[in-house]
Amino acid sequence: xxxxxxxxxxxxxxxxxxDDEKKLRSLYEKRISQEVNGEDLGEEFxxxxxxxxxxxxxxxxxxxxxxxxxxxxxxxxxxxxxxxxARRVGERKRKSVRGCIVGSDLAVLNxxxxxxGDNEIEGFxxxxxxxxxxxxxxxxxxxxxxxxKADDVRKYVIAxxxxxxxxxxxxxxxxxxxxxxxxxxxxxQREVKAKKALENSKAEAAAYTALVHKRIAEQKEARRSExxxxxxxxxxxxKRE
Length: 241
Fold this sequence. Notes:
The protein is an alpha+beta fold. It is built from 3 helices and 9 strands, in the order E-E-H-E-E-E-E-E-H-E-E-H. Strand 1 (about 1-5) and strand 2 (about 10-15) form a beta hairpin.
């Protein structure tokens, strides 16, 4: 079985191949997220503690958390769950996944170091891989360089240089959520526009209400005049008789 060990503190990974059944027996019947002692995998990992994070069987089907079996099953999956990516809105599909219990049918098992031992592993724990990209969000850049609100974040953006067609190109990320005078002015304009729209809607609503009351009063007055005309005509006809 192949073991892929990741060390998040340095960003490194180590790939080892274990054929000793005695060492592998210590991994069997364990589930995803359970801990494994480093001594069980070899003397060079003495003092280390690993956490099982996943794996694949010999046919390439991934292990899925929560499936309490050491075999392959077919599950009806939807968007938002692991081991499936929906192509359409509301789509569901029955997919084959491997259970979360470690067995002998696995080809690759993924481990993560959660506790480092006393001994350094050459080329793995003693070497740190720098991040290729820096932060983009304004507040994250301020936290990285311990800046204040008065400092200009644009001067602290981490840039990288690449070679393209014999030319040296410097690339910088676009800062997200950066507050500038332009954004403040646009925000003030939006607030003024929203305030004017609210005032206009209130004025139009008041004018409409007044017009409705006027039309109702006119209808009532017309009804009264019609009723008074009928009464006067009845009185005149009764006097003639």
